[in-house]
Amino acid sequence: LEMPEKVQTLSTKPIAKPFLDTLAFAIAGDGMFGREISYQFQKNNFANLFSEFDKSVFENKDISLINLEGPISDQDVEQQRRPDNLIFNFSKQAVEALKYLKLTDVSLANNHTFNKGKAGLETTRKILEVNHTGWFGDPNTNDSQSVLRKEVGEIKVSIIVVNALNGTDGVNELVKQEKAESRLVIIFPHWGNEYQTTHSSNQEKLAKEWIGAGADLIIGSHPHVVQDAQIIDKKLVIYSLGNFVFDQYFSDETQTGLIVGGKITKEKLELNLLPIQSIKFKPRIAKDDTRQKIIERICNNIQSYCDGDKISILR
Length: 315
Prior knowledge:
Blueprint: E1 23-31, H1 35-41, E2 63-68, H2 94-100, E3 105-107, H3 117-130, E4 134-136, E5 147-152, E6 155-163, H4 171-179, E7 184-190, H5 201-213, E8 217-219, E9 229-232, E10 235-238, E11 243-245, E12 256-264, E13 268-279, E14 282-285, H6 288-299, E15 306-307, E16 310-314
Parallel strand pairs: 1-2, 1-11, 2-3, 3-4, 6-7, 7-8, 8-10
Antiparallel strand pairs: 1-12, 5-6, 9-10, 12-13, 13-14, 13-16, 15-16
């Protein structure tokens, strides 16, 4: 008798594919393009300002963001160089600096974007739109325009900006609305006490409140110095990134800052800490002791989450 041919059966169970969707981002602190910065660098559209900076930090990111610390005019503005001049009005060339850096978006939720009133704020928004730079946030209100949404495949992220110096009404509701759509929520607040390297009790109170509402990550600005970090309910809070570009050369602390870059996947947040230092106003990647000092300030209270300049948080 002939033996029957062996029949090969193929499983109909689908093969699970690896999860590849990744959203890449880079967030920096306060960018101020007026006063001495504008006086020295606006003539060539701020190109010399970034001659020592590796702009690949912001390139090819799904989100690359700074806090834009003031309004942009549609004119050339003669700048007041005095450091006590607190009414900012950037010349029209400032938008060229944002484009040169390849920034996708800027936050307008701070205490200086209203320095030229409602008309100045509207002019800023129009200039940004014409030049294909996204904006979100308002210095006075927290509503739908405070939210930036980005999606890469199945990764859905919402960034909420808030000028906490002018009130936080409505922020909890925004967080809950975004979480209801299964989005990862990052809050980018303008808050805290200037020049203090340790966060305030009010910052911590707000952080706990927002995390309780569903926020996944908080990265702050405004104090002009890098502040410490904290884990609250397994969520990361970096209280202040310090200055990105600013003419505050009166201390070493105000001439250093931090850029937080990283990747978001379905499983985790992978963050990279990139300290920066300004020399004669020009930002550059910090090295040696300056770099290590900033990383240690961030990681001092969250050492179990840090691996050198990297932080990993499970979602």
